[in-house]
Amino acid sequence: MHSGIRAWAMVITRSVFNRAGAIVGAAAQLVRRDSGLYLTIAAYTLAGLVFLHAVGADDRSAYSIYFADWIKLNCLVFPIFVVIFDAILILYRFDSRRPLVVKATFSNSRLAYFLSGLCLLVALMIFQGTFTSVKNAMPVWQGGFRFDVVQADIDNFLHFGVDPWRWLYAVAKNDSVRVLVEWNYNALWFLLNFTILFFVATSPKAASIRTRYLACFMAVWIVVGNVLAALFLSAGPAFYGLVTEDTARFGEQLAFLAKGLGAPNSAVSNQNYLWSLNEAGRTGFASGISAFPSVHVALVTLNALFLREYNRYLGALAFLYAAFVAASSVYLAWHYAIDGYVAASVTLLIYVVARKLVPADRRLPAPRTQPAVRPEAALAIS
């Protein structure tokens, strides 16, 4: 009897090790395929550190700020959500085919994509730290926010001599609308964009677009959020009076938004937080001020472009959502309207270039495990 138990234990142990080896091997193959993305992150981080040192802003580094929250979100919260979602789907959608669905759900291929995706997401944590660090240092390099008046005047010219927030407030100056817009802009936007990032990084269902999407994702943050922002640094309508001493131009808008001060997702509360960090020369979560162009608009535009590849109707809805986010950015005094226009245009250009230069990924074949030792063979060995 003891010999039989040892035999079965040997079979199970061998099977587990064989499968784990196959999954790790396939994940390593995916990590090697992602080498260009890792090199981009490394080069960007090095360039960011050089920039910080060159402008005398080494103290604006923000890497440690993201570690705990980023790891918790991507290595704990999202994986738990995925397991719960899969379990509910299997229990309530499938019956007779349930064993096959369970096998596919926890297949070696899916687990390999999941493991390699988590590795890449950890690297992107460093990428986000570099982005925030560079953003924090941009006012030091520029000596302040120099382009607000020019950008606000261009906005006014393009909208027939009227600052565009006045058009929005003419039809939507309402406390309930403000609360909804603030919730979408400061909460739902983050959930949608980083859920999509997690899905693309970890799911084999997104295998064909994985490299191209992640390359575009990083390019948007770098080109839109750092390069163009640094070259044409502006603070945005919320801080217009603070950087130009003209408090009247957006005074009515800011007075209305101030009614939500202290409420969950309040735009004014977040703006006060950012300005206090800027004045103190300190770093914090998502710190750094730059209005032109809008990363909020750029990322939802990017997602809309990729969703359109999958389904044109979903893509149409996603573009409507992108337009809503662009209008929200003006409504909440985060951005001038041109910030959204330029962000969407640059994102489209990045997407078109990536389609030409980055080939579609081929999905890896399912990793095979070595055949497990049968109980009879194990007994013979023992």
Automatic annotation (TrEMBL):
Entry superkingdom: Bacteria
Transmembrane segments annotated in the record for this chain: 37-55, 70-91, 111-131, 183-201, 213-233, 285-306, 313-334, 340-358
Name of the protein: Inositolphosphotransferase Aur1/Ipt1 domain-containing protein
InterPro entries: Aur1/Ipt1, PAP2/HPO_sf
Domain Inositolphosphotransferase Aur1/Ipt1: 154-352
Pfam family membership, one: PAP2_3
UniProt KW keywords: Membrane, Transmembrane, Transmembrane helix
Biological classification of the source: Bacteria, Pseudomonadati, Pseudomonadota, Alphaproteobacteria, Hyphomicrobiales
